[in-house]
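Consortium newsletter contribution from the modelling node. Members have asked for a concrete example of what our holo predictions look like. Here is one, prepared for the cobalt (II) ion complex that several groups have been discussing at recent meetings.
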Amino acid sequence: MRIIYVGNPLLRKRSQEITSFDDNLKEFVEELTEMMYTEDGVGLAAPQVGALKRVIVFDDGSGSKAMINPIIVSSSSDTVVMEEGCLSVPGIYADISRPASVKIRYQDADGKVIEEVLEGYAARIVQHETDHLDGRLFIDYLSNAKKIALRPQLVEIMKGNV
Ligand code: CO
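And here is the predicted structure:
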């Protein structure tokens, strides 16, 4: 298992729903969680290791959590700006505006359906990671001017120089 970087087409694909909640899934969740901590991330989505599965893991400071087939059911109309980064876009950080809180529906590793309202850092991480499952990256939210300004850095990442 290794992290893939922006420029890799797998990061732009839609990931597939998980239908079997077996030992392979649990093992995958464990490996993904280990990878997140090894890489010093606060969240990691399966496509970031080249696996097109709807699985995310994160730790907002209160321990590791895994969400299978997460769906954002509703979002608050109030937004908040926070700085984001991404293990697949190394060295780039940017202020991004997103809904302050979200209601999320997901399954745990046993397939149990859970619904939660998240706020603060957890809401932020889950929105960022869920985007990965639909092939979206945080840099997609930047203005064209900022995208153009970041282009040289992105090209270096794509060349593998970062
Ligand atoms: Co990311």
